[in-house]
């Protein structure tokens, strides 16, 4: 990281962390393309019209959006299919290298950590519990079960997360590995770290305006540990100090 990027990471008081990528591979046990195919096949069997373009979609989130558009009355069932697939999948997932180190660094330095994800809250909680990580996270904000339109890049999830941490956007930091994370953070004024875990992502994230680029969760952990928050910064900004 450049010195300016280091400053951006070190000054944050709360962190909004994406799940799929920075924490684990959410579709490790049930590959995303297979989940997408299964969702489409089951919907087709139920009489939902599937377009030729949609039939080749490999992203379950995009499939969920599509099914919501063409068969909104079946959304509870579409959401249930994806939610169950995610829970099955994360049962076989392992933490991303450096993820636990990063989460522990947040705890050790007095920073509030919440997970903000387009994955279901159930799958996130299931993974955190399985790996003994719940104590490191203050809250989990997964996708809305009623409207996939509220998933990132819509800043809706980040907005409710900000209310939970009780800090101004500029005092927080979003860590994510997708364009939707960066777009949502920029839309709501939260500085963002683009976790470039694949070749070419760094340049793309930089083009989107990511404030910080890193290829390592350990790198972010190191910068977090470089600055431990003072006691006065741990006080809820909406409360007066005694």
UniProtKB/TrEMBL annotation:
One Pfam family in the UniProt entry: Hydrolase
MF GO annotations: phosphoglycolate phosphatase activity
Gene Ontology annotations for the cellular component aspect, listed alphabetically: cytosol
Coiled coil in keyword set: no
Alphabetized UniProt keyword annotations: Hydrolase
UniProt-listed GO biological process terms: DNA repair
Protein name as catalogued: HAD superfamily hydrolase (TIGR01509 family)
């Amino acid at each position: 990281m450049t010195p300016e990027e280091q400053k951006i990471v070190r000054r944050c008081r709360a962190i909004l962390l994406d799940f799929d990528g920075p924490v684990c591979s959410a579709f490790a046990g049930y590959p995303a393309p297979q989940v997408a195919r299964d969702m489409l096949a089951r919907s087709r069997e139920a009489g939902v019209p599937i377009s030729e373009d949609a039939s080749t979609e490999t992203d379950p989130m995009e499939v969920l959006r599509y099914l919501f558009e063409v068969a909104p009355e079946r959304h509870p069932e579409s959401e249930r299919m994806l939610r169950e697939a995610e829970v099955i999948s994360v049962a076989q997932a392992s933490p991303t290298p450096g993820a636990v180190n990063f989460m522990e660094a947040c705890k050790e330095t007095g920073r509030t950590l919440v997970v903000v994800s387009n994955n279901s809250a159930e799958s996130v909680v299931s993974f955190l519990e399985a790996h003994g990580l719940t104590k490191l996270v203050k809250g989990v904000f997964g996708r809305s079960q009623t409207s996939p339109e509220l998933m990132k890049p819509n800043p809706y999830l980040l907005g409710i997360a900000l209310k939970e941490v009780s800090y101004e956007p500029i005092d927080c930091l979003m860590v994510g590995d997708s364009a939707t994370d960066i777009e949502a953070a920029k839309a709501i004024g939260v500085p963002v770290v683009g976790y470039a875990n694949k070749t070419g992502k760094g340049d793309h994230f930089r083009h989107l305006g990511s404030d910080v680029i890193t290829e390592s969760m350990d790198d972010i952990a190191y910068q977090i540990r470089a600055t431990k928050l003072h006691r006065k910064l741990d006080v809820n900004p909406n409360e007066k100090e005694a």
